[in-house]
Amino acid sequence: MSSAAPLPTTRSLDIWFKTNLDRVTAQLALYTPLKKVTYRSKPWCSDLLSLIRKGYNSALRSSKQDRFDAALLSSARAARTAYFKAIKKAKREHWSSFLASATPQTVWTAKKFAIGGPPPPFRELPGASTPPELNKALLDHFFPGEPARGFDTILLPFGNCPALMAEEIARALACSSPSSAPGPDITPNSV
Questions:
Q1: How confident is the model over 88-135, as pLDDT tens digits?
Q2: pLDDT of res. 158
Q3: pLDDT number for residue 98
Q4: Contact, 28 vs 59, CB < 8 A?
Q5: Residue 169 · residue 189 · CB < 8 Å
Q6: What is the pLDDT of residue 104?
Q7: Burial of 3 (0-12, 13-18, 19+ CB in 10 A)
Q8: Distance (Å, rounded) from C-alpha 109 to C-alpha 95?
Q9: What are the CB-based long-range contacts (under 8 Å, 24+) for 183-186?
Q10: CA distance 58 to 73
Q11: From residue 2, how far is each of 5, 9 by CA, in Å?
């Protein structure tokens, strides 16, 4: 009979778990970013602004609960003013520090920030500077008029076919609906 390994004790299991948990936590902290920076991130936002925003939201909720209390209402207005002034100040300071540390590689980023967004998709259309001209240019481009066509391009003569008789044409028109779609000559069947 073979001897089985002894079962681990609670203490040895706790030590093993803590050691491996510390290793995994250290690896996660090393390779996992705490905050994913996206193009919508606000680099000017700070912990101070978060505290001011929380104070503003708290004052706003209080003023909404008791709408007739003038002191709560003025407190909410003052908190709102302070919050928006703090945002403007943080943006201004961030922009100044960004421009002070600008390099040749970040000049285009500064240009994008200064414009305030991507450029418009339609820069300009030739010969269209006013809205009516722009409207006409777009309509002419996307919905051009039909080219003038003559009957010679539509009805080609067939040399080996007999000529159509008036009775055949009358029978074909009698079978067709008078309100159906017109043919290439834009003449409805009712005519």
A1: 999 999 888 888 888 888 888 787 777 776 666 656 677 777 888 888
A2: 65
A3: 85
A4: no
A5: no
A6: 83
A7: exposed
A8: 12
A9: 184/149, 184/154, 185/151, 185/154
A10: 12
A11: 10, 21
CA quadruple 115, 120, 126, 131: dihedral sign: negative
Q: Look up tokens 């909720």; give the residue.
A: 61
Which residues of the chain fall below pLDDT 50?
Answer: none
The structure tokens listed for 48 are: 């101070």
Return the residue matching tokens 């001011």.
52
Print the SS3 string covering the chain. Answer: CCCCCCCCCHHHHHHHHHHHHHHHHHHHHHHCCCCCCCCCCCCCCCHHHHHHHHHHHHHHHHHHHCCCCHHHHHHHHHHHHHHHHHHHHHHHHHHHHHHHCCCHHHHHHHHHHHHCCCCCCCCCECCECCHHHHHHHHHHHHCCCCCCCCHHHHCCCCCCCCCCCHHHHHHHHHHCCCCCCCCCCCCCCCC
Which residues, 6+ apart, have CB-to-CB distance to 63 below 8 Å? 69, 72, 73, 75, 76
| Residue 32, both tokens | 């996992």
- pLDDT computed for residue 172 by the predictor: 81
- 99 conformational bin, left if phi > 0, alpha if psi -120 to 50, beta if neither: alpha
